[in-house]
Design brief:
Number of domains: 2
Distance between the termini: 37 Å
Strand order of the largest sheet: 1-2
Radius of gyration: 23 Å
Shape: elongated
Number of helices: 4
Strand content: 5-15%
Order of helices and strands: HHHEHE
Structural class: mainly alpha
Length: 129
């Protein structure tokens, strides 16, 4: 019988050395990209702030304030973890499997809609059956 091996991604039971290595390389490149992006945003914010003292028109002042707010928002998006809710759920499920003497066969996840809107209060309920 011919045995074929399939590559598994990080986090699965049979993660291969190559898939973990590739994942770590991606994280390193992602970290460098974020650092460069944040540095560029800081430089832009600094230049806009320096030039703001030369503005006399209220419209130009409002426009510069708007640019600073947009850069602040871009900085927030760049530093935020887009997988945060899923990581929390995965962590709870992992704890459930680890602590339960009888391994659950079905998992129920309850997420109130207000927690998805206001992510700071994100606390899903996870039940195993």
């Amino acid at each position: 019988m011919k045995h074929t091996s399939s590559k598994k991604e990080k986090g699965t039971i049979n993660s291969t050395h190559d898939s973990v290595k590739n994942h770590l390389q991606f994280n390193k490149k992602d970290s460098i990209f974020k650092r460069n992006l944040l540095s560029l945003i800081d430089n832009l914010q600094s230049q806009i702030t320096k030039n703001q003292i030369y503005l006399t028109d209220n419209t130009q002042l409002r426009e510069h304030d708007q640019y600073l707010r947009k850069l602040k928002h871009i900085k927030l998006v760049a530093t935020a973890d887009p997988r945060f809710p899923y990581k929390v759920i995965q962590s709870i499920i992992d704890d459930l499997y680890r602590k339960s003497p009888v391994k659950p066969k079905q998992i129920t996840i309850v997420i109130p809609i207000d927690q998805l809107i206001n992510i700071e209060n994100f606390n899903p309920s996870v039940y195993g059956i």
